[in-house]
Amino acid sequence: MTAQITFFDLLSRAADFDDSVQRDCARLLRKWLKQGRMPGSWTVRWHDSAAAILREAAGLDVVRPGAQGGLVIDLRLLAGKLEVRAIQKDLMAFVEPGPSRDQERTLAAIERAAKLVSSEESLRWLDECRARERSGTLRMDAGDLSRLDAVVLALNRLGRRQEGAIHCSRLGALVGVSSKFFRRGAPGRRLLADALLYLSGNTQSSDDAREAALDAAGLLLSPTAYTVLVAGPLAIGSPPLDFPAELAARDEACMLTLQNLGGARLKAGVQGVVTVENEAPFLSLLAEGMHHRFLLVYTGGFAGRAVNALLERVLVDSPRWLHWGDTDLAGIRIARLLADTAGRAPVFFRCDAAEVRRLRRNLTPFSPAARKDIARELKEGPGRLGEEVLRACLAEGGWLEQEAWEALTR
């Protein structure tokens, strides 16, 4: 028997197999990929036992008759809950010297299809997106695909909740740290708004209708100013809402809006608060599991209103406050502004004076102008938070990045 496999409609649907069929189909897909030809589609031969496994899943319309006695395998259905990364790895083995744009899109589509099993509405909307793309009315580049990933996650999360503006708080780390996709005027914001309008049955496409749909979902005009990404033992409201713990149990962060912060407080037994300047280090602490003992707060550089509002509430009762930021002048100023807001000073964490001296060979060199700025800062404001760190940097001739600390100490 033969089967011809086409990869380019993976976004339209996904299937929910039981574990045994998932494993068998994943094994078969890897086998086909090893025997196949790129790009797009190819014909492979397989045993009757493999056909029997797929016939077992035929009730899910995975298999349909093909030409010349063969069977056509519908990967739109098959891609749902398989071992996606293993399939990707095998697929990449055939790409010489590197993936074309269509092949890159195929890999992204496979992974995305595996994420979509929980939302039939999202899948229907993606069906329409793909149809519009094929007709030329919707164009997607690599950035669009990334935005689409964030939109799909947002739709899945928003669709499960009915609490109005609190919806935005359930989006989690991927959307939270990708909030640049949802800033006013950004393509991702329009894409999400169109999706919300489509799913609600609203045929309007005006900017006012889009903003109304986003506002109803809790996505405000400036996510970076009015939301804060956190992970850890936090109670919100009375009675306490459960979504921070719900996400933390899956090692995810939670994006809170200003509306959620009125009753925010640390849970009993928490060891303290850690503020983190940059995205990658924040996600690194999350991966380390530090959110089980500390409340992690991502500032996104200079803190916005929601970050400050949260810190004003939780630092009153926090036994410790650690801050992980860059040691250049901007990083120190970020820490100082946080301290001014909170009315107390943090302890520098990981990127401190001792680490600057220890990693002196791996610092980012200062420009002459930056060196002068630091010298002037130390002269005009002696005794301020971060003075020891800045003096160490000035003595060693450079500053320590958060990401560099990670790379050098792992």
Structural class computed from helices and strand pairing: alpha/beta
How big is the Rg? 25 Å
Shape: globular
User: Can you summarize the main beta sheet?
Assistant: 6 strands, mixed
Would you kindly provide a brief summary of this structure?
The protein has 410 residues and is of the alpha/beta class.
Write up what this structure looks like.
The protein has four domains: 112 residues, no CATH class; 101 residues; 103 residues, Dna Topoisomerase Vi A Subunit, Chain: A, domain 2; 65 residues, no CATH class. Helices cover 48% and strands 12% of the residues. The protein has 19 helices and 14 strands. It is globular.
List keywords for this structure.
single chain, 410 residues, alpha/beta, Dna Topoisomerase Vi A Subunit, Chain: A, domain 2, 4 domains, 6-stranded mixed sheet, two-stranded antiparallel sheet, 19 helices, 14 strands, globular
Give the SSE map:
Elements (H helix, E strand, L loop, with lengths): L1 E5 L12 H17 L5 E5 L2 H9 L6 E3 L5 E3 L1 H4 L5 H9 L8 H15 L4 H15 L7 H18 L13 H5 L9 H14 L6 H10 L6 H4 E5 L2 E2 L7 H6 L5 E4 L7 E2 L5 E5 L2 H10 L5 E5 L6 H10 L6 E4 L4 H14 L4 E2 L4 H6 L5 E2 L2 H13 L6 H10 L1 E2 L2 H8 L1
Parallel strand pairs: 9-10, 9-11, 11-12
Antiparallel strand pairs: 1-2, 3-4, 5-7, 5-10, 6-8, 13-14
